[in-house]
Amino acid sequence: MATNPLFTSKYIKAASLSLFIWTVLHASFIYWLGYDIKIALADAAAFNFLLADFCLAQLFVMQFYQPKQDQTAYIVVAGTLIATSVTFISRFLLGLFNFDETYYAFINKSIPVRIGVAFLFVAIINMISMLVKGLEEQKTNSARAFEAEKLSKEAELYNLRSQLQPHFLFNSLNSISALAGSKPEQARKMVQQLSDFLRGTIKKDNLQLIPLQEELHHLDLYLEIEKVRFGHRLETAIVSDENCQTKKIPSLLLQPILENAIKFGLYDTLENVQIVITASCDENYLSISISNPYDQTSSPPKKGTGFGLTSVQRRLYLLFSRNDLLDTKQTDNQFITTVKIPQPKL
């Protein structure tokens, strides 16, 4: 059972200070009316400490039962019972001191006022308790919702990553199968390269952000495999500023973009094709562009569904909550894909 948030040192200190101040004011008022200081202190202490005890008991009850917002009758009934009990019990206790009759006549006349004051205090305590409890529950629910959203994003990110691997793996295995008979040395080399590539992929499964240098090294492994598949037709160039090597990038983000560039650059031509990867950066962003030759007059490849770029854009949104971090454009003979990676604040 959750503890009432009001039973913490912060609230207890505030309530104790409020009780002391109100008791002093109460005693001062009785004394101002012309009664002896002992009578004033006894009146204030009996009434207010009884009221504090009843309010504390009420808070213990509300620790196990919180009325709904539409159950205002509960607060009214509980407040009335407590206020009446405090007033008459304090009247009984004060009667044991044998003070003068004028004072007891004053008490009897002030009973409705005392009940009203006590009721007001109880109502305020109840409403504060409900408000604080509601805020605590809202905070807890928000934390749970945030955690659920985080887990959902992580699951979707994992799903996006896992969907990319089989596509590349099947292509590589098909190429190894084709080379096994005619070029067994290249087939063995490709198996070793594929093993190194997949080993690096597994190591990065739980990493969201890695240095650009690691990502480019991983791309080198990928390109070596693709060069075995396509031979001399595939040429690549990586241009990166030296100060960008330590900038952060989501792991394995560039592979589907590069795969898309190879597909569109090589599948529609028999000529040599150069794919250029360019990285630049400043304090806030790491910008990476991948360009490949593109012939607008030729029909697009029949293979593929465009999942690669779509998955990259979705992954960037899940990580950074932005839809403007992936951009594509076409020139007369080039197709350029650019991603911008926001850098963590130091």
Fold topology:
Layout: H1 9-32, H2 37-64, H3 72-95, H4 101-109, H5 111-182, H6 184-203, E1 209-211, H7 212-230, E2 234-240, E3 248-250, H8 254-266, E4 273-281, E5 285-293, H9 307-320, E6 326-330, E7 334-342
Parallel strand pairs: 2-4
Antiparallel strand pairs: 1-3, 4-5, 5-7, 6-7
Helix pairs in contact: 1-2, 2-3, 2-5, 3-5, 5-6, 5-9, 6-7, 8-9
Question: Please, could you describe this protein's structure?
Answer:
The chain is an alpha+beta fold and 346 residues long. The chain has 2 domains: 9-144, no CATH class; 183-342, Histidine kinase-like ATPase, C-terminal domain (Heat Shock Protein 90). It has 9 helices and 7 strands. It has helices spanning 9-32, 37-64, 72-95, 101-109, 111-182, 184-203, 212-230, 254-266, 307-320; strands at 209-211, 234-240, 248-250, 273-281, 285-293, 326-330, 334-342. It has a 5-stranded mixed sheet with strand order 2-4-5-7-6. The longest helix is centred in the middle third of the chain and has 72 residues, at 111-182. The radius of gyration is 38 Å and the shape is rod-shaped. The model is unreliable at 301-305 (pLDDT under 50).
